[in-house]
């Protein structure tokens, strides 16, 4: 953890009892911290370097867009907070091999892109910009915060028949609640954080829920949803995944893994297979290709869990 982040965390905990509004301001700064930037893993480098690159302007920041393959059908990948597009390297290879063209980007203040500040509006604007040049997209795939961004984009400016959310949440509330829980914020500080977060968007907390909650306002009726979440995910417990799956009853597939956590789930063979099947033919194709359970490197994946299956934790 960088020194500045450690200082913010220490100040946040010390200030919570003295001034919840001040602690809420510090919490907001810490919540939106994007450093340290993730570097490209060596195992992902060949795929990362094979991409065609373009620099585009998104809300005042220079963003790197990546493209792989030349097929007609295109899939857009959206990384998470403090992540980068290269995390999707295993999925990129699988999708290109299956006959898809793949598009991704590093959000502002992430990866190889410029900028020092960002929020979900940048993810959505990048998706909309790439939709105009590379779409329409056959599917959107988002990891963690990028899953929430994919839901938001598909509900607003980037219509797509399929959205896959991996280790994600359905609304800002899920991320704010997990952040507050992880830092043991006092209720008054957590409330101040929520209010300040909404004010950043020119809204109040109810306005944020109305604009950015895919449970309260589900995907368009013609859009199918694949939800992938590990039961051992410590960064984003899977309760929100269960809820967003239930909100799309009849057009959603819930796939839960064990032992893969928040990031390794992106490279697990059963997850890759499910996402490729989903991009190819929707939840019917996922059902057609899956078995009831698969063991890969000691992990287990279960597809088709019901909406009322127990979640590992509730934010």
From TrEMBL:
Keyword Hydrolase: yes
GO molecular function: hydrolase activity
Entry keywords, A to Z: Hydrolase
InterPro entries listed in its UniProt record: AB_hydrolase_1 (IPR000073), AB_hydrolase_fold (IPR029058), Carboxylesterase_BioH (IPR050228)
Residues covered by region (Disordered): 289-315
Biased composition regions of type Basic and acidic residues, renumbered to the chain: 289-305
Keyword flag Hydrolase: yes
Residue ranges annotated for the AB hydrolase-1 domain, each copy included: 74-170
Protein name in the entry: Alpha/beta hydrolase
Lineage: Bacteria, Bacillati, Actinomycetota, Actinomycetes, Micrococcales
């Amino acid at each position: 953890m960088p020194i500045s982040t450690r200082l913010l965390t220490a100040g946040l905990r010390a200030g919570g009892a003295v001034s919840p509004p001040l602690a809420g301001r510090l919490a907001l700064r810490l919540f939106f911290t994007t450093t340290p930037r993730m570097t490209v893993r060596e195992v992902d480098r060949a795929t990362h370097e094979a991409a065609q690159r373009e620099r585009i302007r998104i809300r005042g920041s220079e963003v790197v867009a990546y493209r792989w393959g030349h097929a007609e059908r295109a899939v857009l990948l959206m990384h998470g907070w403090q992540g980068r597009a290269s995390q999707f390297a295993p999925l990129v290879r699988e999708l290109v091999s299956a006959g898809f063209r793949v598009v991704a980007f590093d959000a502002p203040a992430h990866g190889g892109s410029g900028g020092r500040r960002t929020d979900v509006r940048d993810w959505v604007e990048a998706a909309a910009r790439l939709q105009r040049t590379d779409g329409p997209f056959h599917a959107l795939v988002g990891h963690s915060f990028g899953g929430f961004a994919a839901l938001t984009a598909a509900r607003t400016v980037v219509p797509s028949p399929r959205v896959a959310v991996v280790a994600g949440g359905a609304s800002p509330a899920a991320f704010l609640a997990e952040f507050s829980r992880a830092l043991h914020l006092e209720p008054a500080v957590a409330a101040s954080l929520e209010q300040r977060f909404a004010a950043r968007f020119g809204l109040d907390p109810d306005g944020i829920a109305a604009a950015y909650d895919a449970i309260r306002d589900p995907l368009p009726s013609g859009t199918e949803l694949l939800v992938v979440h590990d039961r051992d995910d410590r960064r984003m417990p899977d309760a929100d995944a269960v809820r967003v799956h239930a909100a799309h009853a009849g057009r959603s597939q819930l796939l839960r893994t064990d032992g893969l956590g928040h990031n390794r789930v992106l490279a697990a063979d059963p997850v890759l297979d499910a996402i490729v099947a989903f991009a190819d033919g929707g939840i019917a194709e996922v059902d057609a290709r899956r078995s009831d359970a698969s063991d890969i490197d000691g992990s287990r994946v279960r597809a088709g869990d019901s909406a009322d299956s127990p979640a590992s934790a509730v934010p």
